[in-house]
Amino acid sequence: MSSELIGELGQVGLTIGQGPVSNNSSTTVSNSNDENSPERKRQNVNVRPYNQSSRPVNRKRFRTAWLMFDIFKDWLRPHPSPELANCIVCNRVIKAGKSELEKHAAGKRHLTMLKEMNSSGNTGAADTRYARGEVVVLHEEMVGVQEFDSAYDESGGAVSVSSGGESSYKEDYDRKFGDSNKGTTGAAGGTGGAQSVDNSEGNYTTGIYTPQQRNVGPPVQMVTKAVVMNPAPNWKATAIVNGHVTRLDLSDYVGRYLVLVFYPQDFSKICASEINALSDRSYEFRSIQTEIVACSVDSHLAHLTWSKISRADGGVNLPKIPLIADPTHTIAKAYGVLLPDKGHTLRAHFIIDKRGILRHMSVTDTLVGRGTDELFRLVKALQYVDEVEEPVPADWNQQNE
Known about the structure:
There is one protein chain. The protein is α/β, with parallel strands linked by helices. The chain has 3 domains: 3-46, no CATH class; 64-198, no CATH class; 236-390, 3-Layer(aba) Sandwich (Glutaredoxin). The chain is 26% helix and 17% strand. A 7-stranded mixed β-sheet has the order 10-9-13-12-11-16-17. It has a 4-stranded mixed β-sheet with strand order 3-4-5-6, with helices on one face. β12, α9 and β13 (323-325) form a beta-alpha-beta unit. It is elongated and about 85 Å long. Residues 16-56, 155-215 are annotated as: Disordered.
């Protein structure tokens, strides 16, 4: 007997050993509606509705009727996934929950773009772009998916983003570029047109560039006092000089050129290579009236420990240049090189002339070590300009004079 019929008739009890069921048999039918009866409790436990899942059902699905609402009809369009929806005004994919859609409709950016679209009469163009599948930029409300800005490349193609089970990078590439790039080789596989980024992993056809996403944090607000051709920000700090703890001041270097070098942290392989390279050539800089000072956010005790470690073990072995301690980040903030989320500085250097004026500044990624030869050439070029009061061309070298 089916579970539906049992649910309609109640609990059916059969006595073992009885023959065929007849009107006089001991088959009993209980039509009790008492929810607390043992039979009803046993029925509720043992009988499960068809295809019932133990997980809660997601009710946030797209409803076609929403397209007739005044708040949605001008911009809302369905998405292939029933749990998502398209906004043809913002070129975004958003979650299909009614509350999410109402929140998006009240957004300042959305209202501004909707007003511009209505005033210019470009609703038809937006629908055409939607029909072509170009409304593919993800909204920040989509959980677990990285947001990409809605943008167009120089040729006017939309930047599309696919995630997981949606169209792959190669499918987007073939669909958007067609046969125009057949036989083209190289890192990008062609020029112009739309680019597509696929967050899923996989091996793609040779010649199609697969971008590697690097973890990028939120924008960092930096305020720097270091401006070229202006006085360099003053500083006073504890430093390690020839294995001894002392105090240094920017004013100590008035009358000589100074190269202020920032490096991320002590006990780093790249930083050790830089400090050792600058230390080995410090006599060359001193021969042209220039001093080098290296600074990091480490304490003077960390500097002292690092300076006593041999180069073979990753140390700097009593460098011939001072190591400034900036544990409070005061100097790093003044020169605008601090990474607050990392707690250390970028790799940078500043050239300060004998009057205390900042003449050159360079800030690079922490993963790339600086070139000592180029730093030496820049100091000599600035000194030559001060001497002759004439500009110098690109790749200038005093040996060529």
